């Protein structure tokens, strides 16, 4: 890991920008080259010194030893094959929230080995380069998918890079990844969006309803501020798993509703006793 | 507010214990007398010096100038009339999460005027005297209900007391209160309990599912650690409002499900754009 590398970051927003800060901070980068379709974001990223310069995609790929993709997952699926078309021996990795469709899209690509599929389990409800944070990703899990399809040298560099950032490596097949994240990430965003809509609808007739909102409400609703450009493609790409978890979650809510409707205090107690077992996971 | 008062706290748990700390800290109490059915909690409360002594309820009422009720709302409904039976000119207030049933229970009581119905909008997912916090309630809203039914001197002392603690006073009729809290507090707890159960059910077949859970998941699920002894009676006492908000919330989740199922990215974008309006409320 002694050699710093020239690294191109495609998409310098919350995730790409936070990654840029870490790559610089951990002395992993010799140079950071941004690629950004959004001109305002590019200007902000330079102002915050997230990257050294911006280049068009082709020039950035040619100038870099490592290429990071941190763009919405629908754009990733079309862009990754094009990036691989242009690489020689560079390492390419993505930081997206879904994995099966992306890995499928490059399955037969002659440069498949240069690509490592990754998903660091960190984010916030904010977006854009302004939202980039120092020290992001540290102490969190990063999932590496279908590592047997990557070249050993590329995989080796990616693993050491994430370890240097302070992440815990978890290996998983893409399908298992997409199922797991539906349950511990995607559903949390949907419940939060839906809860915001539930209360905002009520506000139309009860205008002072938020006046008394407390920390508990804020905690369950904060993810509702998340960016649709990022989340719509995630839900659609992970459609089957997301529908499954949503169906199960609606069933669980219906159990609460039925217990309350029938004044079944013992049933309600049992449902909450079950839910309290989350204490084993969340301290 | 120069005179400190002898104050009895019935129920020295998370809420009663945190109130005891504030009453002492803000120099509102001359003496703090605890009343506690749970012997272990009483011992812990003395160990943490939350109150000066414990007395049986009748003796505590006789010895106090102010009586605070901080017990589950089902117990409150049966206890409040009994407490009012024994007061002469003491001030009685409760800190419960539902108000209509409680106020109805003492509507015709000859000592109704001595009682002030209050609900400070603060709590955590923990319970018992160990969970009591210094500085609790500060900067939050406290709802006072049906204040026209309380004697002016009692209401006046309660208002000054909450102001001294640093709370923002909001007056509301009991029915409006119960509707509002269903939307900004009770539903958050139900979604959190149901989300915990959804993922804990999945864990039975996917044992490593929590290994990759991140801060977003934790935020939406932390209220699922809340105590059933407190929450079962709240949901049942506020049944009609809770059923209404649950029905609406399930409808909102179903909209997400249908948009995803039909690959309706514009519909999904519109739902998330709506939810993003919560930024106006939650900074």
Q: Which fold name corresponds to the CATH topology of the largest domain in chain A?
A: Rossmann fold
Query: What is the CATH architecture assignment of the largest domain in chain A?
Result: 3-Layer(aba) Sandwich
Shape of chain A: globular
What is the averaged pLDDT score of chain A?
Answer: 96
Q: Tally the helices of chain A: what do you get?
A: 11
What is the H/E string of chain A? EHEHEHEHEHEEHEHHHHH
Main pleated sheet of chain A: 8 strands, mixed
Q: What is the level 1 CATH name of the largest domain in chain A?
A: Alpha Beta
Q: Measured on Cα atoms, how large is the radius of gyration of chain A?
A: 21 Å
The helix fraction of chain A, in percent, is 40-55%
* Alpha-carbon distance between the two ends of chain A: 35 Å
The tally of strands of chain A reads 8
Q: What is the strand arrangement across the widest sheet of chain A? A: 3-2-1-4-5-6-7-8
